[in-house]
Amino acid sequence: MKKKIILTVLIALLTVCILGLITACDEPEPSSTEGLTFTLINNDLEYEVSGYTGSSTDVYIPSTHNDKPVTSIGSYAFFDCDLLTSVVIGDSVTSIGESAFCYCNMLTSVVIGNNVTSIGERSFKDCHRLVEVVNKSPNLTVTKGDPLNNGCVGYYALSVYNSDSGITKSQLIKDRGFIVYSNDREKVLVAYNGTKTALTLPSYITKINQRALSNSSTLTSVEIGRNVTDIGESAFSECRSLLSVKIGRNVKNIGDYAFVFCEKLISIEIPDSVTSLDYSVFNACTSLTNITVGSNNSAYKSIDGNLYSKDGKTLIKYALGKKTETFVVPNEVITLGDMAFSSCAFLTNVVIGDNVESIGYGTFYSCDLLRNVLIGDSVESIGDKAFEYCKLLTNVVIGESVKSIGNFAFRKCELLTSVEIPDSVIEIGVYAFEDCDSLTIYCEAESQPSGWSSSWNSSNRPVNWSSKG
After folding, report:
1. Is residue 21 helix, strand or coil?
2. Residues with Cβ < 8 Å from 338, sequence gap 6 or more?
């Protein structure tokens, strides 16, 4: 009797499972997202998605429309669609056109249907937040970090799932406008599409991904939690309304261009924990008047609100918003870092002391009011673009120890009237004095040294050899 009861129960359970599978297989396809534009193609037998005018951030592209298959996504169909955060592509679609999702800056995930055979060039170009790609198609292999194939769809991905690797549950979570990539090791902030202008990041976040909060026109303040260890490349770039940032005490790395073009940022404190910080982090922060550093930081220090290496030998970043007209480089400085003064709008005079040995790439690039520069006798190299676009620069004295002048070093210094090049200079790069329309050049050398580029004086300004001017 017991055996019959057990058998009856097993049969009932099996029946329920089978019916459940049948029901699952027969589940209707999700509804097409409102706002998709469909265009008939191939003798009106098929549809192509040719545009999107909807307001939903999550888009589903159906397999059929008006009882006809949807087989392609047209070129530029979603081009520069900033509101789009996720896309699921139906299984009847076979092709994704050129630049179809190009510049979709908020797109974080895409599911590619199982019949897609081609993805056009630049289809996902500059989708910097596209961190999760699910590729159901056996016709394609998407590779994480690949900038060339399949329309760059995998270039910025943190996870890629191809048809042969098994499709897993999405690792993206949405929390109060924050879009976070979550796995066993880390919780990465990918984007924010909420409405708040003053943000306190969730305490569980461990990393801020590249460009996660970039290009926000409304963000005014950010507080970064204690669990964050990395701020990614360009994470806050072009947040032009950002006034203040509080960096968590465990941040170790601040990526390239992290705060570039944060034009209203006035001050920032770098905690003791930061050991890696690129020269470009505060480029074009033209209101920045004070950079402070924790007293126990092992890599950096602040002097008068400017950023230096801990030993004081490298000036990394001058606070561009300072309204000081004259700056004298401290005696302990040996290197003026790349882009250290770039875009400074107030400096008119700079005195480079006798201990400085090198002027870096773009150190004074586009310093609009800079007029006079005295380069000490210890300087041996002037980097590429060092004084490019210093349009009011009229007077430069080059020290007797300079050996090389880089490419474009003084290009577009339109008011520079004269420069003396000592015979210590054995290398001058291409276009070093291009478009210096008022310039007369005096050279101690009797003739052009062999190490000077043939286009060093591409604008053919007057040159006086064997002369000191």
Report:
1. helix
2. 279, 280, 360, 361, 362, 363, 383
Number of structural domains found in the chain: 3
If asked whether residues 52 and 143 sit together in one domain, one would say yes
Q: For 107-145, what is each residue's pLDDT tens digit?
A: 999 999 999 999 999 999 999 999 999 999 999 999 999
Q: How far apart are CA 225 and CA 129, in angstroms?
A: 21
Look up the pTM and report it: 0.87
- In angstroms, the CA 109 to CA 217 distance is 23
CA dist 117 to 84, 95, 113, 293, Å? 23, 6, 10, 53
Q: Is the pLDDT of residue 9 over 50?
A: no
User: Could you give the CA distance from residue 338 to residue 315 in angstroms, rounded to a whole number?
Assistant: 9
Asked if 241 contacts 259 with a C-beta cutoff of 8 angstroms, the reply is no
Mean model confidence pLDDT for the chain = 92
Alpha carbon distance 208, 224 (integer Å): 9
Confidence check: pLDDT of 36 > 70 = yes
Residue 24 has pLDDT above 60, yes or no: no
Residue 206 belongs to a domain with what CATH number? Answer: 3.80.10.10
Give the angle 114-120-124 at the CA atoms, nearest 5°: 85
Question: Using CA atoms, how far apart are residues 253 and 165, in angstroms rounded to an integer?
Answer: 33
Phi, psi of 25 (to 5 degrees): -70, -30
Cβ contacts of residue 23 below 8 Å, gap of 6+? none
Domain boundary among 254, 272, 304: 304
247: number of Cβ within 10 Å = 19
Q: Calculate the CA dihedral of residues 201, 205, 206, 212 and round it to 10 degrees.
A: -60
Radius of gyration of the chain from Cα atoms? 30
Joined tokens for residue 388: 């490019």
In a domain, 100, yes or no: yes
Encoding tokens for residue 39?
Answer: 């265009």
Task: Place 28 in a pLDDT band, splitting at 50, 70 and 90.
Answer: low
241 contact partners, CB below 8 Å, separation of at least 6 = 197, 216, 217, 218, 219, 220, 264
**Token pair in block for residue 172:** 């993206």
Question: Residue written as tokens 């310039």?
Answer: 439
Q: Is residue 314 part of a domain?
A: no
DSSP state of 10: H
CA distance 437 to 263: 31
229: containing domain: 172-304
Q: Is residue 331 part of a domain?
A: yes
